[in-house]
Each structure stands twice: as C-alpha cells, then as structure tokens.
C-alpha cells in the first residue's frame, strides 16, 4: 500500500494539476472574451489585432518572468505569501470593476472610442485596466504550479543536486562511481569519480567517439614547439569533458549560456572536475555562444581555433540560430586556417540536422564527414559531423570504419536567420 507521504504527494500534485488546468483555461478564455467584446468598437483592422496580440504576449512573458524570479529568489513560504497577496489585490480590483461595469472584464459603454483617433493607445489602456493583472497572474500561476509539482517530486536515487533555470530542469546524480548530468530526459555527460579514472573522457566524448578520435589523432599531437598548440572552442560545454584531451600547450575556451551549468563544471564548488584536472589552459565565458563569437569578432578578438565544437543539439528543442548561414560565417571568421575544423555534435532522439549541415557545407564549399559510433563501456551512441575547407583535415585512417560521406545527390537544406523549419529535420534523414 502507498505510504501516507505518497498519498499526500499524489493529492498535492492533483491539486496543482487542477490549478494549472484552470489557469490555462481561463487564460485563453480571457483573451477570447475581451477581444470579442472590443472588436465592434475598434474594428478588425490589422493594427487592432496586432495591438491585442502584442499586449497578451508581453503580459504572458511578464507573468513567466515574475514566476521565474519568484521561484529563484524566494523561499517556498515567501513565494506563497507574495503570490497570494497579488491574487488578493487582483480579486479586489475585479470586484471593483464589476461594481462600475456590467461584468468585471468587459468595460462599460463610456470606454467606447469616439471619432477616428488612432486606436492603439486606447486599446492598450483598456486591456491593462480590464484584464492586465488577472492575465498576468494566470500566466504566472501556470509556471508556479508546475514548479510546485517539480519541487514536491522525490529526488532521483543518489541525487546530488537538482537545478531549475530558464533553460529547464537539470539533475546531477550518482550511480556507483559515476556522477551524471541530465537535462530533462537527456544525459549530457558523466564523470567516473573513483580517484583513478576521473580524467577519463566518457559519454559522447569518449575516445571511441568521432570527436575523441579526432582530438587524439590531430596532426598537432605529434608536433612539439610553439606551433604545436591546439586551440579549441566549445559552444555548450556541459560537464566540460572535452578538456580531458587538453595538453599543457593547448587552450580550451568554453561558451556556456546557462550559468548553473557553468557553476557545476568550474570554480571552487564544481561537481565535475574535468576542467580542474585538464593540463590545458581553460576558460569559460557565459552567454549565448553565437552572440559572444559575433561580439568577439567585431572587436577583432578572433579565437583562431583549430577546432570549433558546437554541442547544443541533443535536446528536444535545438537552437536553430546556431545552424544558419549567418552563424557559419561567424564560425569561419574564428578559425585559425583552412585546415581548421568545425565539429557539430547532433546526437538526438527526434531531430536530425544532417541535411542542414550538408547545406552549409555546400554553401561554403566545405568537405563534410559524418561519424557515428555505437555504445561502449563508458560511451553512448553518438553522431558527430565535421566540416573543413581542407579535405586532408578530415582524412583520418582511425575513423574510416565509422565515417560516412553524403552522396552527391543527398538532400540538403540551407537555413538562414530569416528562415528555418524544424519539421524539415524531424524524420530520420535517409538521404546519405
């Protein structure tokens, strides 16, 4: 039989679920009611619809932002007090409006505009007063209810930490000697922490993966002297596993958009120690990888990378702005020479960006190689795609058994900042 705590937890989750459902239902009802009511007043011109859409989108995002700030800066009890207080104010406001209007959400006839004045200001003023606060709080309630359910869930067995940020839920937990990083349902890396194999690269970055084979067999590995340094840029470092390949003369620069992910792989309180154990000089920069690279290029601070790794495509929602023609122009500006390589990690259960990468390779006259590997003792199945303007840079005998070059007639897709379509890459790509 379920324990008392389990029964309480189930009841609590049920109540939160009902609250989320009602909030979402009322959220859309509010939009329909007020829009239908004021339509005869202002007409159905594009400016009217655009103004209404803009208002609801801004207040929706404001509600989400408020919920995020509430959940990240206050204790649970304080969150409840603040939100209940605001709900109380909203109820008082609704009751007051009901006294003056025919209903609490639909304004009286005195608000009907007269003349041919520009309606934008009048619409915004009317919406703010009639539905602004209720809409804002309903949007926030959806997020807060979800956060309450998440907070009430039992931790994963062996869990070390669970983070919640703008980018989703991140869990760090132990299985035996393995410390594992998970984002939602996707594993983003792990480290063997037994005091012996701690520096060993694992997961999608192990020595039998495309990137592992490439880094271990790069021609500079056999060189010595000032020209033997390997400069590596990595967008989306996760646990920082790739730093395990660094030598004393190498430089690894990581671009991480989520400060909570960055905090678990660097600094005095780091859980994953790949960066600390690396022989290379390492640096972590916080922010959107593409924007950071663009800003660096504008001020003449080029990375001069021998290898630029894009590792942000394993989740169910991928950043399309990292796969456009304009993004590739930025990447190319940061390369050291024509034999430099751009590596994309595209292991994904639902999406396959291979056709987009083929499109980029054709657009910029680059050679392309796809490297798959199967699951091993300390590795997972992975797919890496390598692009270079120098064919010889991708001619490694060590990965001939795993490498695949697309057929000449293989389907390719070119995305730009003005156009991208995830439906094009949902199905498994069979055009190789």
CATH superfamily of the largest domain: Vaccinia Virus protein VP39
Question: What is the radius of gyration?
Answer: 26 Å
Strand content: 15-25%
Please write the CATH class name of the largest domain: Alpha Beta
Order of helices and strands: HHHHEEEEHEEHHEHEHEHEEE
Average predicted local confidence, pLDDT: 87
Low-pLDDT runs of 5+ residues are 1-5
Taking the alpha carbons of the first and last residues, their distance comes to 53 Å
Named CATH topology of the largest domain: Rossmann fold
Strand arrangement, major sheet: 7-6-5-8-9-11-10-12
Q: What general outline do the C-alpha atoms trace?
A: elongated
User: What is the architecture of the largest domain at the second tier of CATH?
Assistant: 3-Layer(aba) Sandwich
Count of individual beta strands: 12
The helix content, as a percent range, equals: 25-40%
Count of all domains: 2
Key structural traits:
alpha/beta, Rossmann fold, 12 strands, disordered N terminus
Please sum up the structure shown.
Helix content is 40%, strand content 16%.
Q: Strands, helices and their partners?
A:
Elements: H1 4-42, H2 46-73, H3 76-100, H4 119-152, E1 159-165, E2 168-175, E3 178-183, E4 186-192, H5 210-216, E5 231-235, E6 251-256, H6 259-263, H7 274-277, E7 281-286, H8 289-298, E8 307-310, H9 325-333, E9 341-345, H10 354-363, E10 367-373, E11 382-388, E12 403-404
Parallel strand pairs: 5-6, 5-8, 6-7, 8-9
Antiparallel strand pairs: 1-2, 2-3, 3-4, 9-11, 10-11, 10-12
């Amino acid at each position: 039989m379920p324990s008392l705590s389990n029964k309480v937890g189930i009841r609590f989750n049920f109540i939160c679920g009902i609250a989320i459902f009602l909030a979402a239902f009322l959220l859309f009802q509010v939009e329909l009611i007020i829009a239908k009511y004021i339509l005869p007043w202002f007409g159905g011109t594009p400016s009217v619809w655009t103004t209404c859409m803009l208002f609801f989108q801004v207040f929706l995002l404001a509600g989400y932002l408020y919920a995020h700030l509430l959940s990240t800066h206050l204790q649970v009890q304080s969150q409840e007090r603040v939100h209940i207080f605001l709900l109380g104010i909203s109820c008082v406001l609704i009751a007051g409006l009901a006294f003056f209007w025919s209903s609490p959400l639909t304004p009286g006839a005195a608000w009907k505009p007269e003349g041919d004045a520009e309606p934008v200001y009048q619409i915004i003023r009317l919406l703010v007063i009639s539905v602004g606060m209720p809409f804002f709080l309903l949007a926030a309630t959806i997020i807060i209810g979800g956060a309450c359910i998440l907070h009430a869930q039992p931790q994963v067995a062996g869990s070390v930490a669970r983070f919640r940020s703008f980018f989703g839920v991140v869990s760090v937990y132990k299985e035996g000697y393995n410390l594992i990083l998970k984002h939602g349902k996707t594993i983003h890396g792990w480290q063997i922490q037994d005091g012996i194999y701690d520096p060993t690269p694992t997961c999608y970055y192990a020595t039998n993966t495309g990137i592992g084979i490439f880094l271990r067999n790069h021609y500079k590995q056999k060189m010595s002297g000032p020209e033997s340094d390997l400069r590596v840029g990595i967008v989306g470092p996760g646990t920082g596993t790739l730093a395990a390949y660094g030598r004393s003369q190498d430089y690894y620069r990581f671009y991480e958009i989520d400060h909570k992910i960055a905090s678990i792989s660097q600094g005095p309180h780091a859980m994953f120690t790949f960066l600390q154990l690396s022989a290379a000089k390492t640096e972590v920069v916080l922010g959107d990888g593409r924007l950071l690279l663009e800003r660096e290029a504008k001020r003449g601070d080029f990375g001069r990378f021998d290898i630029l790794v894009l590792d942000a495509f394993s989740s169910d929602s991928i950043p399309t702005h990292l796969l456009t023609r304009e993004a590739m122009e930025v990447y190319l500006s940061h390369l050291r020479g024509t034999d430099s390589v751009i590596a994309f990690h595209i292991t994904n259960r639902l999406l396959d960006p291979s056709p987009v990468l083929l499109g980029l390779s054709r657009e910029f006259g680059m050679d392309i190689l796809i490297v798959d590997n199967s699951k091993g003792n300390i590795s997972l199945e992975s797919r890496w795609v390598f692009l270079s303007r120098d064919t010889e840079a991708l001619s490694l005998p060590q990965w001939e058994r795993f490498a695949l070059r697309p057929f000449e007639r293989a389907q390719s897709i070119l995305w730009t900042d003005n156009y991208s379509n995830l439906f094009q890459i949902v199905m498994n790509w069979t055009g190789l």
